[in-house]
Write a sequence for this structure.
């Protein structure tokens, strides 16, 4: 019996981070799995660097990226390109991850080609289809195309059951981001690289719904925090999107304690997380990473599809209002007891073996043609 042929579809940095452990685990068992990596090019430089860090080369690159691209372009170009690749490669399974437009495109292309779809990180929900936009709708639609649903948490599993998904098609795995995080920490340890030591709080903001006025408020909040706390520094790895970089530069460029910088590689970013006093973000994956590391995280969104971190007391929703952000950060910077109460690691998002559970489930269900 030939190895099971898997096609992994990657478009963005979060997808690359969370599918890399699955790819590496599959490659470690060549008698069982033949894994192909396909990139849509939804993101370019960020994914190039990430895959290189994990030692992964893409077999196919659709290279769809255009300046100021819109989701409709990403979806249509990706579905066309992926459909052709699936027809040529004839995989037994197509694996998509998360909630990006590439995720939905991969699921649709596989469905149209009558190829089974496995959805990694299935079942996350905010309950508001426009928040986050377009991710909430992307992942909900992907659910109703997928054949196997790899739920990262019991709550995600329950969400799927409530939507009528057959329990036999849901596998509780944990989140592969914990697998990636442990891999990165191991790389840093082997290279003898400690966490960054200078005192700072880490800030990331890039979500589409936060572009414009919301990002301006976030910048103003960071400026006010630095004003109130003369010893504080803000480390801000800027997303490459021109609209995001322009706002950061206009609002905080030149401030001596606002450290505007380029995006970090994954292992370097993990070091930055470990060294931060706290993290201020609108990211989804960073909420999971901070929870696993025991790092207080303030989430600049109105809703989160990762309430497990909030329930565990290691994350807090603060929205994008200036006053709310400033007060939340100040409480953690001023009150060590408050900060220590949030600085607790939790295994709410898994134990680092999600990739093995995913591959075991695929082996148990699929049979090569």
């Amino acid at each position: 019996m030939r190895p099971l042929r898997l096609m992994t579809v990657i478009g963005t940095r979060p997808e690359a981070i969370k599918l890399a452990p699955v790819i590496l685990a599959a490659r470690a068992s060549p008698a069982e799995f033949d894994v192909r990596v396909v990139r849509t090019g939804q993101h370019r430089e960020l994914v190039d660097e990430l895959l290189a860090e994990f030692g992964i080369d893409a077999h196919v690159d659709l290279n769809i990226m255009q300046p100021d691209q819109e989701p409709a372009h990403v979806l249509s170009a990706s579905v066309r390109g992926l459909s052709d690749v699936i027809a040529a490669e004839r995989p037994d399974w197509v694996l998509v991850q998360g909630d990006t437009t590439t995720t939905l495109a991969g699921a649709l292309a596989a469905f149209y080609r009558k190829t089974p779809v496995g959805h990694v990180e299935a079942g996350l929900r905010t309950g508001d289809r426009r928040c986050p936009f377009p991710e909430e709708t992307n992942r909900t639609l992907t659910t109703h195309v997928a054949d196997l649903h790899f739920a990262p948490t019991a709550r995600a599993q329950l969400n799927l059951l409530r939507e009528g998904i057959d329990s036999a098609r849901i596998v509780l795995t944990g989140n592969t981001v914990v697998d990636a995080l442990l891999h990165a920490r191991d790389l840093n340890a082997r290279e003898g690289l400690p966490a960054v030591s200078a005192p700072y709080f880490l800030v990331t903001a890039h979500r589409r719904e936060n572009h414009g006025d919301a990002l301006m408020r976030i910048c103003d909040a960071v400026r006010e925090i630095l004003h109130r706390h003369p010893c504080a520094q803000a480390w801000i790895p800027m997303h490459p999107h021109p609209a995001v970089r322009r706002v950061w530069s206009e609002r905080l460029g030149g401030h001596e304690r606002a450290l505007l910088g380029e995006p970090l590689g994954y292992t370097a970013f993990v070091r930055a997380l470990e060294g931060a006093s706290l993290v201020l973000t609108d990211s989804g994956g960073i909420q999971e990473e901070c929870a696993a590391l025991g790092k207080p995280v303030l989430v600049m969104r109105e809703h989160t599809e990762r309430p497990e971190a909030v329930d565990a007391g290691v994350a807090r929703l603060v929205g994008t209002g200036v006053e709310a952000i400033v007060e939340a950060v100040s409480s953690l910077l001023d009150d060590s007891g408050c900060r220590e109460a949030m600085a607790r690691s939790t295994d709410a998002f898994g134990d680092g073996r999600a990739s093995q559970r995913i591959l075991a489930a695929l082996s148990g269900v699929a049979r090569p043609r």
